[in-house]
Amino acid sequence: MKKFYSLIVLLLLCVSAAQAKYTYWGYGDKTISSVNGAATAGKAAIYIPAELAKCYVGKTVTGVRFGLAANVQSLSVFITTDLNGAPIATKEADVAVSGLNSAVKFDSPYTITGEGFYIGYEYKGTENALGCSNLANLSGNGNWTNFGDGWVNNGVKSNALNIYARIEGETLPVDLSLVDVKDIAVKENTPFKMTGRLLNQSASNVSAYRIGYSIDGGTEEFADFEDEIKMRSEGFFEILHDGVSGKGNHTVKVRLVSVDGEPDVYDGNNSAIVSLLGTTVSVVKRVLMEEFTGINCGWCPRGIVSIDQCIERYPDNFIAIAKHNYYQETPEALKSPTYDYDLTGTWPYCTVDRIFTFDPVPANSLTNVNAALELGTVVGLDAVATFVPENDNRVNVKATAQFTLADKEANYRFAFAVVEDGITGYRQNNAYAGGSNGEMGGFEDKGSSASVTLNHVARSGYGVKEGIENSIPQSVNEFNPIVYSTVLDLPSTVINRDNIKVVAFIINKKKGTIENAVQVKVTEQGETAIADVNATQTPDIAVVGGAVLADGFDGKLSVYTIDGKQIANENLSRGVYVVRGTGAEKTFVKKIVVM
């Protein structure tokens, strides 16, 4: 009978263990993007304050999960109520490698009493292995370190460490963290979106949530989402807004109101304060590709195809300049000596924002353009270019920049280029003729000497290598737009004045990169030069039944997400999209907001 009773108890324990749920609670996300300090050995910890611990009273901390920036020789996890006192429990890790590691479980779990406590690890290695997430340590509880000189709270200026408590219990509360809500810079009275993430730090899926927001202390508005966020996972949200009036700084308070119709268990990670900067010019990131090419280069058709595909994918965010300089075989009429920025390498060769340098195979170009767009920008840029009255050989240019962050030691400079489209009369050597070297945007169907129309051809450059000295003050701020005006002399190689454009861009001298760019058509004095394609003449656009329709337009309509990915023109959900219309007599690009 005793053995039978023991078996029943054992089975009940197994059932109880099977019913126990678990989650990981911490201040970071799953990325390991940086290291903290330079020590090859040390300790790291996060603090769970009493107000959070009270939400989990009676639950147990069974272990610690951690992320590292490098492999280590040894690592042990700990839990304590006093960083300078004896730990409550410790456990040596069998394996501790670069990346997000599995939880190391204590021999005896710690039952949460409602008192604040710390969890962390001690490591020893040959490299600095301390991993930090992408998330800022806004609570001030997510980054404690000890490199031999005592414990230091690295505060809100640090990123949260990749340390997470494994919490178990038969039932666990629902706890979502509102994180990574982005600051916003947008032209006043222009629609924008607020974005952020929700970390589900609970052991159950959620299916709906409400987020509230208010601007400058005004009436709180609400956005409801019916999106599933799985347990121990994360969700992404965006909220569309019609725009704000008034330049300068605004404050947006964003908070998680409810989850599945109920309040979230812990209010300490449910809100964020966002800076919204109303600017004079639109803070749109545009990528500049500088391609080095030649009509006598048989492989250079891939540069032509590459540029066309980037324009198709990123119609509002991509600019190209093609510099013809293929050895000594480039015709004099296509050369541009004043465009004095150059690259060495085999043709074709290109750079995107002077960050990524590569052979412009279309797949490479699309990948690198997207990567450059993901980096964003700290400056909005606009420009106007008009012919000098009664002198078609000169162009007045006015560029306006507005930075979104103050920098007292900035080193930015304006630069300008003149490009021409629609140049005919040349034939392109074509190594793709006949398809023996694969497909290349139709060049496989052309002859070995293919008739082409050359676009984006560099005609002249002004400060394109180093930037124009003193064109931007050393100290910049987020309040005052910077205006720079100059006159550009057109070279005699320009064929058709109706086909020329001016590219204005900003060089970051500290990094040797291009921060942002804009391309504008040169117009007659008194005409409106529009830099933003959204304002060009377009048909009336409507969304009917989840699909975009263009009144009176009989061409092809293509729909892209705001980050440039083409999607089907059907079942469009709420969001911002780019619509491109391509017809025999008219082409247009327009941003739309689907509510």
Describe the structure.
With 595 residues, the protein is mainly beta. It is 8% helix and 44% strand. It contains 4 helices and 41 strands. The strands form 11 sheets. It has a 6-stranded antiparallel β-sheet. Strands 1, 4, 7, 8 and 14 form a 5-stranded antiparallel β-sheet that branches. Strands 16-22-21-18-19 form a 5-stranded mixed β-sheet, with no helix packed on it. A hairpin with a 3-residue loop joins β25 and β26. α3 packs across α4 (362-375). The longest helix has 18 residues, at 2-19. The termini are far apart.
Report a brief summary of the structure:
The protein is mainly β and 595 residues long. It is built from 4 helices and 41 strands.
Indicate the low-confidence ranges by residue numbers: 1-18, 527-536
Helix/strand class? mainly beta
Q: What proportion of the residues form beta strands (DSSP E)?
A: 35-45%
Broad shape: elongated
- Terminal CA distance: 70 Å
Major β-sheet profile: 6 strands, antiparallel
Mean pLDDT: 89
Tell me the strand order in the biggest sheet. Answer: 6-5-9-3-11-12
Number-wise, the strands total: 41
Give short descriptive properties of this protein.
595 residues; 6-stranded antiparallel beta sheet; 5-stranded antiparallel beta sheet; 4 helices; disordered N terminus
